[in-house]
């Protein structure tokens, strides 16, 4: 097995006449922390959705752990170890916090869905105390942590974190970052999609930049952020 | 299916529910008491009224598996119900089989119909699914109307056998006992699903299908399982109908009141738990039966509508929800 | 003229006229279901309510039934606005519209129908419009005014509504609700007020369609059932929020029904029509005339 | 509106209450416990339009009997529940009537869909059962205590459309082709079957033969296809909403057929008579009663005269020519059998009904082994000379003349049918 866990080749997506994404090549190595940035509408979420299987058809291909992802439904990708969070937290509103986590534990096909493992999962995001609450009783940051807990319950090889920091306070961002670092130390590859630049630069080992559906830069954060094109894309908005 | 109904984990929530053994003991005791009480009354009418109510318990419980647990509103309950009834007619006529084998075959027909509906329509969400099931009902009724073997629009007669099986005092009593067993089985199935992995997956996809997929839930497969089980059970609810009335014709078998009741009963009782449809069905159908023989006018149809509207407005979690603050 | 050709032409013309009636019935729904996302399954029941009120008023006053239905429109508008307030208060606001909201309108449908039986009895009611006995002959083609006048009035009303939606500020706001509720907030328009207004309009159209229906045929409390499947099919085929699509789909539906009935026998026409819907749902969920979502 | 709804509510209350006999009016006072007659009746739902007039006729009968001193010296009491036109309600109603209310006698509600579900319950209790407007109900059950008040008799296929064809074949020139149109329903499948059978007998070429579904809205394609097939005569089986649509379409499409009609149930209902008016002229319609001098029996006129003011008050069918005479006759059969037997004995009642003939407001009746009329009496009538939409002309003889059977004939056929043109 090569150490490239994910390889995107010439990925593109059109909606009617509008090209949202085009010709994206991307490789992610196992254990890497990749930041994916770009202005609004640059195609980051489209890329995530293509990767997670939410759009059944797109151009190009993904290879995950040396096997093609084409034709796999989102839940099959999730079971293979490809987890994601949603930009806006989408808890199962009718289930308790603990039951929310039990869903991926039961269906992820990795490990037992015992109460202990659910509680362990919640403890890792500091939600154990609220295991029996309903999602509507949680604060915004707690919902994001629940979102992360649900993704990590799949014990993924690759985790895509879609704007988990938006609107959070400084300390809250730090909490989430700490959590992600811990996960990464445990061996999970993480792609962070983020607007909060402090978080991305602090977290990422490598940055990829999307602008208008194309990848315009890919490399170490300091180098990428220094590129005039990137600066223009961000400041010229 | 095999991986669908795996016994559940112990619930994290304060476990106020009974264990499996306790549940079964209680169910059997309730059934036995009911049968003895009815027999004690010695009235054929008591049997009929009980059968009427229990038939709705099966129907409402079945509807709730798809509607309540998975959140897919089926407006075509009458179609499945009638499919069961007409299975009894067709199979009874073709092979001369009695009620019990007919119920089994009705379950298969209903299950297949549910699966077919699922495959055709489950990519549709919300209102689209509801309307598609309504159309299905129209299509199926057209089919039955044009199928002369089961009587077409003329309707069909099913004569009750002269001899009463298993030492029951009358065929009405036998029918009542059969439907009682069906109701108990329906509730048991619903309860098992609710506490199983299948129930958890359905609850997840009810709240958010995309998020459920992302959490590894095979939503399409679970929905197909749910439509099949729900369809099979609704057909089972309808299977004894021809014996109840001895005559069946499409207009009343596909009657809107079955569709309305199948929706109203779980919503009134509460859709989150097996007890909801049970409570709703017992309450609403006995109310209707009582109204039929007391105030006896069009006004008693009004009961369903008014009770439904009032409940969905004022108590969206049903009667169960009034007592349980959570979920 | 070749008899088959005449049959076909007449089938098409009578189908278009029937389609006009369907358009009247579906236009209101295309606002409530298509634009506001309120699944008002009781819409045909309200249409029947309108038809029966028109029949009673006609018997009392002898005024033209279509005129009566237009006069009734404000009352139906108010009824719709009131209904929307209830719906919004109990369902939309709570985010419960999916199941509870559907059940609510199902219950409302039942209440309207049974209420009508209690109020006016189970019998059929009818009106006699002055023009109902006249038929225009255009060569081989017959155009009964009984069908033509309601269809024309309905299409004119739909046209007026389309103009209103396109050119007035409020109308554009209604169209915007269909697209994006947040956009309205930015414009400092209360989306609830707009939706209340729009739902009122949708019920006013139900009343108008009732007037058209009762000119065409006698009506009893359950006459709406025949239309439930048809109007939803039409709105979906028309691409939900597009009034023009809705009218085209209604006309197509009428033509398909009548041409099928002319050539293959009437027992096939519902099956063909609903087959079309299932096909549309399966192949083009955005509707025949709808834009890509 | 307010007045109407109040009347509606009043009606509901009336239906709710068990009809209590007017004992005060009794001349020779009926005494003792009442004889209770139980049944289900469609007071709401699709059959209510005929169910309510039937109930009214039953109540008139009960008042008549009680005014004359009751039955066997006891007052009669009607116990009825609304079945909402739903067959599924019916078994419950009859078990309740028999087991809980302990009624002495049962009769049926209106039409096959309501009669059939009552049969098993009634058969189990071995009760005599007089039904109203059922077709072929007893063909499967073969219950020897079943008696049907329906003029169609037991040989529906051979006799139902006979009158229509006899009239047609007597025309000059003789028709050579026929079109058949029928609603896809129990009754109309049987009527179309009879027409098909007789068309073959008479060697008529069937140029169009199609059933239409109950949800049909526009009938012009049907009429046009029939016209395109160029039949000499047209036999139509339809129910009220469709009959109006069919005849209006015929009128709009300038229909012109030598003979047009059949069991087009529709003008039987007063409201539709008035609405269609001159479109009915020369239409040949199957019927059960028409106010012609040839069809007057003791009590007929009295019943109609009693019925009409009550109907106006209760807002049901104004003329009452269709169901009420038969509903009243249903009760008369029961009454006469009870009187002859002298006690409430179900077996004896049934034996009496098989053995004797009955004098009713619709004429003398006799039942065959299956409980159908020994002699069918399918009337074929023609509307003639209707002008405008007034109700008075329909009360008079000569508006709906009887063409068949010959023994009741009151007028001559007029041709062609041009739908009012």
TrEMBL record, chain A:
Identify the InterPro entries for this entry: AAA+_ATPase (IPR003593), ABC_AA/LPS_Transport (IPR051120), ABC_transporter-like_ATP-bd (IPR003439), P-loop_NTPase (IPR027417)
Q: Does the keyword DNA repair apply?
A: no
The alphabetical list of record keywords is: ATP-binding, Nucleotide-binding, Transport
Taxonomically, the superkingdom here is Bacteria
> Domain ABC transporter spans what residues?
6-237
Instruction: Give a GO molecular function annotation for the protein.
Output: ATP binding
Keyword field contains ATP-binding: yes
Which protein is depicted? ABC transporter ATP-binding protein
Organism the protein comes from: Teichococcus aerophilus
From TrEMBL, chain B:
Q: Where does the sequence pass through the membrane?
A: 20-38, 45-66, 72-92, 99-122, 128-150, 171-190, 224-244, 256-279, 299-323
Q: Which key words tag this protein in UniProt?
A: Cell membrane, Membrane, Transmembrane, Transmembrane helix
InterPro entries the record matches: ABC_transp_permease, LivM-like
- Its principal location? membrane
User: Where is coiled-coil annotated?
Assistant: none
Q: Where in the cell is it found?
A: Cell membrane
Q: Which CDD domains match?
A: TM_PBP1_LivM_like (cd06581)
Membrane topology, as annotated = Multi-pass membrane protein
Descriptive protein name: Branched-chain amino acid ABC transporter permease
Q: Which organism is it from?
A: Teichococcus aerophilus
From TrEMBL, chain C:
Name the family the entry cites: Belongs to the binding-protein-dependent transport system permease family. LivHM subfamily.
Claim: Transmembrane is one of the keywords in the record: yes
Highest taxon above the source species: Bacteria
Q: Which Pfam families match?
A: BPD_transp_2 (PF02653)
Q: How does it sit in the membrane?
A: Multi-pass membrane protein
Q: Which residues cross the membrane?
A: 6-29, 41-60, 66-87, 99-121, 147-165, 197-219, 231-256, 263-283
Q: Which UniProt keywords apply?
A: Amino-acid transport, Cell membrane, Membrane, Transmembrane, Transmembrane helix, Transport
Q: Where the protein is mainly located, per its record?
A: membrane
- What name is this protein filed under? Branched-chain amino acid ABC transporter permease
Q: Which organism is it from?
A: Teichococcus aerophilus
Subcellular localization, as worded in the UniProt entry: Cell membrane
Task: List, alphabetically, the CDD domains matched.
Answer: TM_PBP1_LivH_like
UniProtKB/TrEMBL annotation, chain D:
Q: What is this protein called?
A: Amino acid ABC transporter substrate-binding protein
Keyword set, alphabetical order = Amino-acid transport, Signal, Transport
Source species, domain of life: Bacteria
The family assignment reads:
Belongs to the leucine-binding protein family.
| Ranges for domain Leucine-binding protein | 34-368
SUPFAM superfamilies documented for this protein: Periplasmic binding protein-like I (SSF53822)
The keyword Manganese is assigned to this record: no
Q: Which Gene3D superfamilies match?
A: 3.40.50.2300
Q: Quote the Pfam families the UniProt record gives.
A: Peripla_BP_6
């Amino acid at each position: 097995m090569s150490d490239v866990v994910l390889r995107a080749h010439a990925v593109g997506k059109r909606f009617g006449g509008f090209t949202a994404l085009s010709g994206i090549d991307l490789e992610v190595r196992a254990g890497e922390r990749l930041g994916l940035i770009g202005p609004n509408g640059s195609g980051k979420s489209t890329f995530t959705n293509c990767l997670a299987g939410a759009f059944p058809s797109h151009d190009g291909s993904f290879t995950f752990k040396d096997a093609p992802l084409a034709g796999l439904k989102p839940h099959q990708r999730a079971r293979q170890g490809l987890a994601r969070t949603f930009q806006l937290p989408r808890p199962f509103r009718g289930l308790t916090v603990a039951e929310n986590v039990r869903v991926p534990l039961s269906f992820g096909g990795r490990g037992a869905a015992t109460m202990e493992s659910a509680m362990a999962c919640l403890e890792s995001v500091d939600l154990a105390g609220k295991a029996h609450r309903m999602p509507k009783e949680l604060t915004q940051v707690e919902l994001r942590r629940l979102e992360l807990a649900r993704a990590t319950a799949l014990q993924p090889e690759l985790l895509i974190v879609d704007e988990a920091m938006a609107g959070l306070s400084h300390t809250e961002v730090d909490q989430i970052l700490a959590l992600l670092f811990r996960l990464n130390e445990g061996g999970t590859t993480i792609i962070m999609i983020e607007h909060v630049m402090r978080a991305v630069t602090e977290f990422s080992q490598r940055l990829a930049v999307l602008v208008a559906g194309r990848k315009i830069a890919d490399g170490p954060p300091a180098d990428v952020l220094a590129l005039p094109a990137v600066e223009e894309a961000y400041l010229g908005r | 299916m095999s991986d669908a109904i795996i016994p559940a984990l112990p619930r994290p929530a304060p476990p106020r529910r009974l264990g499996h053994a306790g549940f079964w003991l209680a169910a059997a005791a309730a059934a036995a008491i009911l049968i003895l009480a009815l027999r004690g009354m010695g009235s054929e009418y008591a049997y009929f009224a009980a059968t009427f109510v229990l038939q709705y318990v099966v129907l409402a419980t079945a509807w709730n598996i798809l509607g309540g647990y998975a959140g897919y509103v089926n407006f075509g309950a009458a179609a499945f119900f009638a499919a069961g009834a007409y299975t009894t007619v067709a199979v009874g006529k073709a092979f001369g089989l009695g009620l019990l084998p007919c119920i089994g075959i009705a379950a298969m027909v209903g299950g297949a119909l549910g699966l077919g509906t699922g495959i055709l329509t489950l990519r549709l969400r919300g209102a689209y699914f509801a309307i598609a099931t309504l159309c299905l009902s129209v299509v199926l009724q057209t089919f039955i109307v044009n199928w002369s073997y089961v009587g077409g629009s003329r309707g069909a007669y099913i004569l009750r056998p002269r001899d009463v099986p298993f030492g029951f005092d009358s065929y009405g009593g036998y029918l009542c006992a059969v439907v009682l067993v069906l109701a108990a089985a329906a509730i048991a199935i619903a309860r098992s699903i609710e506490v199983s992995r299948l129930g958890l997956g359905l609850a997840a996809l009810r709240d958010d299908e995309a998020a459920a997929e992302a959490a590894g839930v095979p939503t399409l497969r679970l929905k197909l399982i749910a439509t099949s089980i729900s369809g099979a059970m609704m057909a089972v609810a309808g299977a004894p109908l021809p014996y109840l009335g001895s005559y069946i014709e499409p207009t009343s078998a596909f009657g809107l009141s079955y569709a309305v009741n199948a929706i109203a009963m779980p919503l009134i009782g509460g859709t989150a738990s097996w007890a909801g449809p049970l409570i709703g069905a017992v309450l609403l159908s006995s109310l209707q039966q009582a109204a039929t023989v007391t105030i006896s006018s069009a006004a008693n149809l009004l009961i369903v509508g008014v009770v439904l509207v009032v409940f969905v407005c004022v108590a969206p979690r049903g009667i169960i929800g009034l007592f349980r603050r959570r979920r | 003229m070749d008899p088959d050709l005449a049959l076909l032409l007449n089938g098409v013309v009578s189908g278009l006229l029937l389609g006009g009636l369907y358009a009247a019935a579906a236009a209101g729904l295309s606002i409530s279901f298509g634009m506001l996302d309120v699944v008002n399954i009781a819409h045909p029941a309200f249409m029947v309510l309108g038809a029966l009120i028109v029949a009673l008023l006609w018997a009392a006053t002898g005024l033209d039934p279509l005129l009566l239905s237009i006069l009734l429109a404000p009352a139906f508008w108010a009824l719709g606005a009131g209904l929307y307030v209830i719906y919004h208060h109990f369902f939309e606001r709570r985010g419960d519209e999916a199941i509870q909201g559907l059940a609510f309108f199902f219950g409302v449908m039942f209440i309207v129908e049974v209420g009508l039986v209690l109020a006016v009895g189970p019998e059929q009611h009818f009106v006699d419009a002055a023009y109902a006995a006249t038929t225009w002959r255009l060569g081989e083609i017959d155009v009964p005014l009984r069908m033509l006048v309601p269809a024309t009035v309905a299409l004119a009303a739909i046209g007026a509504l389309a103009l209103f939606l396109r050119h007035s500020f409020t109308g554009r706001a209604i169209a915007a609700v269909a697209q994006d509720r947040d956009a309205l907030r930015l414009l400092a328009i209360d989306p609830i007020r707009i939706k209340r207004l729009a739902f009122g309009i949708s019920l006013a159209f139900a009343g108008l369609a009732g007037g058209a229906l009762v000119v065409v045929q006698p009506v009893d409390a359950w006459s709406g059932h025949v239309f439930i499947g048809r109007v939803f099919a039409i709105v979906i085929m028309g691409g939900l929020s597009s009034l023009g699509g809705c009218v085209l789909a209604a006309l197509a539906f009428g033509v398909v029904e009548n041409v099928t009935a002319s050539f293959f026998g009437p027992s096939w026409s519902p099956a063909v029509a609903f087959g079309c819907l299932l096909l549309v749902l399966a192949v083009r969920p955005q509707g025949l005339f709808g834009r890509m979502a | 509106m307010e007045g109407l709804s109040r009347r509606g509510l009043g009606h509901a209350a009336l239906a709710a209450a068990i009809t209590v006999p007017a004992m005060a009016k009794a001349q020779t006072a009926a005494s003792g416990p009442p004889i209770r007659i139980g049944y289900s009746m469609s007071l709401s739902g699709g059959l209510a339009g005929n169910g309510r007039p039937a109930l009214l006729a039953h109540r008139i009968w009960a008042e008549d009997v009680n005014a004359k001193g009751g039955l066997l010296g006891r007052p009669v009491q009607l116990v009825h529940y609304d079945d909402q036109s739903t067959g599924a309600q019916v078994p419950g109603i009859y078990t309740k009537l028999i087991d809980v209310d302990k009624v002495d006698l049962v009769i049926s509600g209106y039409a096959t869909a309501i009669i059939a579900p009552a049969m098993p319950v009634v058969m189990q209790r071995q009760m005599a059962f007089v039904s109203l407007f059922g077709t072929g109900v007893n063909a499967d059950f073969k219950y020897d205590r079943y008696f049907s008040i329906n003029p169609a008799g037991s040989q529906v296929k051979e006799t139902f459309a006979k009158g229509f064809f006899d009239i047609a074949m007597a025309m000059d020139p003789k028709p050579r082709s026929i079109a058949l149109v029928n609603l896809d329903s129990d009754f109309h499948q049987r009527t179309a079957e009879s027409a098909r059978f007789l068309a073959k007998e008479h060697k008529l070429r069937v140029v169009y033969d199609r059933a239409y579904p109950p949800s049909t809205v526009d009938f012009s394609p049907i009429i046009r296809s029939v016209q395109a097939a160029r039949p000499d005569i047209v036999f139509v089986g339809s129910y009220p909403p469709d009959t109006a649509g069919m005849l209006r379409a015929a009128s709009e499409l300038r229909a012109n057929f030598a003979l047009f009609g059949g069991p087009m149930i529709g003008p039987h209902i007063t409201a539709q008579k008035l609405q269609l008016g001159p479109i009915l002229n020369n239409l040949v319609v199957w019927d059960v009663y028409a106010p012609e001098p040839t069809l007057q029996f003791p009590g007929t006129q009295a019943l109609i005269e009693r019925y009409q003011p009550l109907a106006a008050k209760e807002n049901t069918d104004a003329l009452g020519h269709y169901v009420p005479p038969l509903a009243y006759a249903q009760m008369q059969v029961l009454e006469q059998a009870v009187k002859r037997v002298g006690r409430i004995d179900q077996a004896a009642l049934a034996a009496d009904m098989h053995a004797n003939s009955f004098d009713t407001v619709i004429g003398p009746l006799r039942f065959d082994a299956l409980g159908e009329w020994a002699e069918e009496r399918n009337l074929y009538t023609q509307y003639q000379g209707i002008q405008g939409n007034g109700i008075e002309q329909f009360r008079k003889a000569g508006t709906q003349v009887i063409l068949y059977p010959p023994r009741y004939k009151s007028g001559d056929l007029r041709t062609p049918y041009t739908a009012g043109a």
